[in-house]
User: Fold this.
Amino acid sequence: MEATKTLLTAEDLLRLPRDGRRHELVKGELVEMTPVGPRHGLIALRLGRYLQEYAEANQLGGAMVETGFCLECRPDTVRAPDVSFVSADRLTLLDREGFVPEAPDLAVEVVSPDETDHAVQDKVMDYLTHGTRLVWVVRPRQRTVTVYRPDGSARVLRETDTLDGEDVVPGFSLSLQTLFGSGPSA
Assistant:
């Protein structure tokens, strides 16, 4: 006889002990996130800073880092993009304790060296399936950003290109040279 697996809820995830580890919940199953390296952290912080400064100055919404979004219930899926953006008309979603109950308008994943392509694609599909309007997957080693849209289209930007907020963060742009800065990729 096969044992039944106990699925966790978003509330269970909130109650986990604060031991310095990051977790996500995928269809009720706990996924531990490996701590990130310095290059990853610098890129996420840089992108989050530029995005937040622009959004605030233009009253477009708010940017966050590592914020949990409850994308699906029963079984629960909670994803925490490295950087996210919620438009001004949805900012009331952020005025609460716990996880944001809907998908962000923009989700950004900075790919870690140990992260598999399959795991990254699962995250992209989770975001897009649950209402995210734009997903940026940043690959520091390759110095590229892949832009995904709900219509299934994707575009790879190279270091000489400029990231564009499209209709999600209107007017926002950031050169990939600025995003990646100088120095070695990791």
